[in-house]
Design a protein that fits this description.
Elements: H1 2-9, H2 13-37, H3 40-68, H4 71-75, H5 77-98, H6 107-125, H7 133-153, H8 164-178
Length: 182
């Protein structure tokens, strides 16, 4: 992350985009590797460190992107506004309902957040790769809306939740089992 900030401060757009794409590749790969290892302690450690790295990345990348391409906010205000609204609604609902952040680790969120990292690098770099930015923003917005729906569907906070569909399947099983005669 310090390298990203240093590159942005020096207006080094191409190396910044390459570094961000590399970081996103490592972010996706470390989770896959941890799950393949299969050790519960390794997965737990990876999730803890991954959450911290994601938080730092999502705090550092937007100001860096703004420094490298200030017109991005003006050009993409609607997509950015919709994403922020969905994220704020998801976080607020989970904080109010369960007093914690919505860390469900859904399939949609994991892949759309990774896709947005690559898309942001493409959008900052310009050219044909910039065209994937809006679809990636839309997917991440949908992922936050899915997290909101999961929060509103659950009686108690549970994680990980692979998808809203799986939550409803699990709740359907719980309901059908509670109504069965003994």
């Amino acid at each position: 992350m310090p390298w990203l900030a240093w590159l942005a401060c020096r207006n080094r757009r191409a190396p910044w985009c390459a570094t961000l794409a590399t970081l996103m590749s490592v972010d996706l790969a470390d989770g896959i590797i941890a799950r393949r290892i299969g050790d519960a302690e390794t997965i737990c450690r990876q999730r803890r460190l991954d959450g911290l790295a994601d938080a730092v990345l999502f705090a550092v990348a937007p100001p860096c992107a703004y420094r490298l391409r200030p017109q991005l906010v003006r050009e993409e205000w609607l997509a950015i506004g919709l994403l922020l609204a969905a994220q704020c609604a998801s976080v607020a609902a989970c904080l109010l309902r369960f007093r914690c952040l919505p860390r469900y680790r859904t399939f949609t969120y994991k892949w759309s957040a990774g896709a947005l990292g690559f898309a942001l690098a493409g959008r900052i770099a310009g050219g044909p790769a910039a065209k994937v930015f809006r679809p990636a923003m839309a997917l991440l917005t949908l992922a936050h809306l899915e997290a909101l729906a999961i929060t509103l569907s659950l009686d108690t906070f549970r994680q990980p939740m692979a998808s809203l569909w799986r939550v409803h399947r699990a709740l359907g099983r719980d309901d059908s089992q509670s109504h069965r005669p003994a």
